[in-house]
Amino acid sequence: MTSKLPYIMIAFAAAMWGLIGFFVKGLTAAGFSAMEIVAIRVLTAAIILILVGIVYYRNHLKIRLQDLYLFVGTGILSIVFFNWSYFTAINLLSIPIAVALLYTSPAFVAILSFLFLKESINRKKLLAIVLTVIGCTLAAGITGKGGATFSVSSILIGLGAGFGYALYSIFGKIALRRYHPFTVTMYTFIVASAALVPTTGIAGKASSVFTGDIWLYAIGLGIFPTVLAYFAYSWGLERTESSTAAVVATLEPVIATMLGMIVYGDRLGSLQLLGSAMIIISVIAVNITLPKREQKKHFPV
């Protein structure tokens, strides 16, 4: 029987990502911009990972220079590009539409995995992806009745967030063929930090990060929805298909919505409840394999 632990680890990563709003709210209240918060996130994560690596993963600290492009892929093309696209889309569009466009990522992963990783797209996986995309759209509250119109460029930027989000699964899958999950996670955030810290000017605000309760938000942001989440996701991704991992990871908006209801008193409409249910159904559908008859049971299903 195929182990479900990789899917559990990916779901755990999704749960950790669902907590990000708590830390972002705290840092936003302290006066940091969206991209400064991203810079704090990746820099804090990189420092923590380097320290953990020196103590526990000394045998996994080296990479080949010719493989650096993989971490440019996970760190800059994915983490940095995804965040830039996502926050730009929030400003140009609206948060619900930006979130919905972000979670088109499973469709991008399935297509990219088919093209570059030679992974198949069967009917069950295709149905799960379709349900996920529709579910995320409904969960985000898009009803089509608002009458708002947006430019093509702003929609493409929003889709860029989904594409950038998907690239982590693709580059990460290739990197995991050669490196330990810890190595992949650490160098992803080292490269992302090298790109973000100089361009956001967060270094000039370094003294203000560690005042009052800000350092708790900064370190918490670096540990829970970042280090733990990406390590768990990389561990699970190493042991399953990229497209399947991406679908399981879309539990994140459901978990974030539940936390919002419990902690912040957010209310869900019927369409959002339906969308959340569709996401859960898609995750169940992609992971449950119905048993076949006794004959041919020696064949994988």
Topology record:
Layout: H1 5-18, H2 20-29, H3 34-56, H4 68-92, H5 95-102, H6 105-117, H7 123-139, H8 152-176, H9 181-200, H10 206-209, H11 214-238, H12 242-249, H13 251-264, H14 270-287
Entry keywords:
mainly alpha, 14 helices, 0% strand, transmembrane helix, EmrE-like, EamA_dom, transmembrane
Tell me about this structure.
It is found in: Endomembrane system. This is EamA family transporter. With 301 residues, the chain is mostly helical. The protein has one domain (5-287). The protein has helices at 5-18, 20-29, 34-56, 68-92, 95-102, 105-117, 123-139, 152-176, 181-200, 206-209, 214-238, 242-249, 251-264, 270-287. The longest helix is centred in the first third of the chain and has 25 residues, at 68-92. The termini are close together.
Number of domains: 1
Reported for the largest beta sheet, the result is: none
Topology order in helix (H) and strand (E) letters: HHHHHHHHHHHHHH
Class from helix and strand fractions: mainly alpha
Straight-line N-to-C gap? 10 Å
Helical content (DSSP H or I, runs of 4+): over 70%
**Rg, Å, rounded:** 19 Å
